[in-house]
Each structure stands twice: as C-alpha cells, then as structure tokens.
C-alpha cells in the first residue's frame, strides 16, 4: 500500500511513519507548512507544529527512516479553515477547539484529498487512536476506537471524521502501550527527537497568550466594553470585550463586588451581541442536558434512548448519558446521568459506545 506519512517534527509522527515502513508499506513523508510566517520555537520548549525547527526535525526523521520527504504549503487553507474560524467562533461568544478543526478540514480533508489524487492509498499520522475492522468491528464497518494508552488517547479530536475519511486513515500508534514506549522506540531507531517535549499550546499563537492574540484580531464589536452581571442581573464588574471570556472561566474576571457567600464565581454565559458576561457559583455551572448540531457519525447513527458516553474536552472524563433526540438536520440531544460543569458552546461533544467512537456534534447549548 502507498502511504503518505504526515511528519509534524515530533516523536509521535516519526514513530508512526517508522511503523508504517515496518509494515511493508511504500511510505513517503510530508511536512505541512501551516503558518504563513512560521515562528521559531523557544529553545527547549515545544510551541506547536508550525515552526522552522519542526520542519527540520521532520526532515531529519525522514532521512533516518530512508524515505522521501516533501514540504507542502497548506497555510492558506489552514488560515481560512482553522485560524479564521477560531477568531470567528470567539467573536460569536463560543469556545472552539482548533485541533478538531485542523483534523477535519486540513489533515483529513485537504491533505488526504491531495494524497489520494497523487495515487496514495492512505494517510498515516501520529495520533493515538485505533482503527478496528473485519470480524472485530461491531458495526460491520471500519471503526474508530480509543487508543490502548488512554492517557494519550486522541480519538476525541478525530471524532469529526466520517466513514469515507476513516477509510483512508492509518494510526500506527493506536496499539502503543504508553508514550514512554514510543519514546524508547524512537531512541532505539536513532531518531534524535526521542526526547523532544510534546506540543501543548495552540500552534498558531506564538507566545501562548491566547487572550492577547485574540484581542489583536477580534472585530471591533467583540472588543467593546460592557457589564459583568451575576445570575440575578446585578452588575458586579466590567469587561473590555465579551469575546475574550469562556464558560467556566474563573481567573481574570476583575469583579468589583464580592459574592454574598464569599465563594469564587465563574463565567456562566457570554453574549457578545449584548456585550454581557454572566457569572455565578460553581453550582450554577452544572448542566445535565447537552444539545449539539452539525452531527458527524463515524458509522451508523445512534438511536434515541441508546446509552452512550459523552466527552466534551480533549482530555476530559467520559460522562454516561442517554440519547434523547436526533433530527435530520444534524441535531442531537443527550441527557447526562450526573451534571457536568464548565461546558461551553462551541466545544465538541464526542459520543462513545465503549471504546468505539460513535460520532460528534458541536455543542450549541
């Protein structure tokens, strides 16, 4: 099989490519240039997957593996579908996940489409997730499952992939026991990036200060000052732009009126149009019904009344739930067994049946 291996410059994608080579595939490596002006990383600190250093690390890994290496410039697509979308979502008072959008629009759309057009059969990445097929597949189709290493599982950010995208995806690290095992394997293969730190920040925010980065890019209306009110409507402070806040936020509220009980207050909701941020207690953050739209099913759609697990953050806990409603327009509503806190519109709602990813939707309420 002809496989295009996406090399980010990190240890995971390098070992994934190596395993694809070991499996007997004809492997070609490609590094994606995603930023129009890639920042340099701070020495010793991982900044993301868009730096010049990452490109060089990817090339060196390909040299060690003895596979062809190319750089593809997808910065225009990345800027439009990930960066601009990120700003627009915050401007609308929602909290997006750019990694989800990058997988959906760039790595498993723009990249995959170009790979298939060039005659490749599959795209391999360093994501920690598993593809299950054949007799082991419960639904009779190619299924996306959680990684064996649950601490590193990345199936959440892949839950936006429909069946035709999963059909050409390879995740060689899905069977890895631990991240330490992957690092040890990289060292044994002579890959110099075996000890390279994981990237944890938003790759297109060079200094990690997302609030300041957004402040320079949000439209003027989203940066207009307004009131911070409590759940009764009482004014307790002011803000310099509602779009900079997210549901569940505790720090940086600058409230001038303390809570009656003296306990911390959190952002309950954000309305950019009304220039209002509502704050309240931790108890008021609790929700037990989640509604999403734009549903994408990785296989057969669930049924009303079906028991599933819900996940609303990349590294959040799985929450037992029951599917209450589905509609033909991609809407889904689930009821949680126990209330969850800090769930924000714009986040991804991923649904699981055991380790199998059923699908996802964008939280609307």
TrEMBL record:
Which domain of life, per UniProt?
Bacteria
One of its GO biological process terms is: methylation
Region of interest called Disordered, as start-end residue ranges on this chain: 223-242
Question: Is tRNA processing set as a keyword in this record?
Answer: yes
Q: Which residues form the tRNA-specific 2-thiouridylase MnmA-like central domain?
A: 223-280
Q: Where in the cell is it found?
A: Cytoplasm
According to the entry, every stretch annotated as the tRNA-specific 2-thiouridylase MnmA-like C-terminal domain falls at 294-362
Query: Which residues of the sequence carry a binding annotation for ATP?
Result: 6-13, 32, 126
Q: Which family does it belong to?
A: Belongs to the MnmA/TRMU family.
Name listed for the protein in its UniProt record: tRNA-specific 2-thiouridylase MnmA
| Organism, scientific name | Quadrisphaera granulorum
């Amino acid at each position: 099989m002809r496989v295009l291996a996406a090399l980010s410059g990190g240890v995971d994608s390098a070992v994934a490519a190596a395993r694809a080579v070991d499996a007997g595939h004809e492997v070609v490596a490609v590094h994606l240039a995603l930023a129009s002006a890639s920042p340099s990383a701070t020495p010793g600190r991982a900044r993301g997957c868009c730096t010049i250093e990452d490109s060089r690390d990817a090339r060196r890994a390909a040299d060690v593996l003895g596979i062809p290496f190319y750089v593809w410039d997808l910065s225009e697509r990345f800027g439009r579908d990930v960066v601009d979308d990120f700003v627009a979502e915050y401007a609308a008072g929602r909290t997006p996940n750019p990694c989800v959008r990058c997988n959906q629009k760039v790595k498993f759309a723009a990249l995959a489409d170009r790979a298939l057009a060039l005659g490749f059969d599959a795209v391999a990445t360093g994501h920690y997730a598993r593809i299950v097929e054949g007799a082991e597949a419960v639904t009779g189709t190619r299924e996306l499952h959680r990684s064996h290493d649950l601490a590193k599982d990345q199936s959440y950010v892949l839950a936006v992939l429909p069946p035709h995208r999963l059909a050409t995806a390879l995740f060689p690290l899905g069977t890895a026991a631990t991240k330490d095992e992957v690092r040890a394997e990289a060292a044994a293969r002579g890959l110099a990036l075996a000890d390279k730190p994981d990237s944890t920040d938003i790759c297109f925010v060079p200094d990690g200060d997302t609030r300041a980065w957004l402040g320079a890019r949000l439209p003027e209306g989203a940066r207009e000052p307004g009131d911070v009110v409590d759940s009764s409507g009482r004014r307790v402070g002011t803000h310099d732009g509602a779009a900079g806040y997210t549901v569940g936020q505790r720090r940086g509220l600058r409230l001038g009126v303390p809570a009656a009980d003296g306990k911390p207050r959190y952002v309950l909701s954000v309305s950019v149009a009304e220039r209002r941020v509502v704050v309240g207690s931790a108890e008021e953050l609790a929700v037990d019904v989640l509604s999403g739209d734009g549903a994408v099913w990785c296989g057969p759609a669930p049924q009303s009344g079906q028991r599933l697990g819900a996940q609303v953050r990349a590294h959040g806990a799985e929450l037992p739930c029951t599917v209450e409603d589905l509609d033909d327009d991609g809407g889904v509503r689930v009821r949680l067994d126990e209330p969850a806190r800090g769930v924000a519109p714009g986040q991804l709602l991923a649904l699981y049946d055991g380790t199998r990813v059923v699908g996802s939707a964008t939280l609307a309420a």
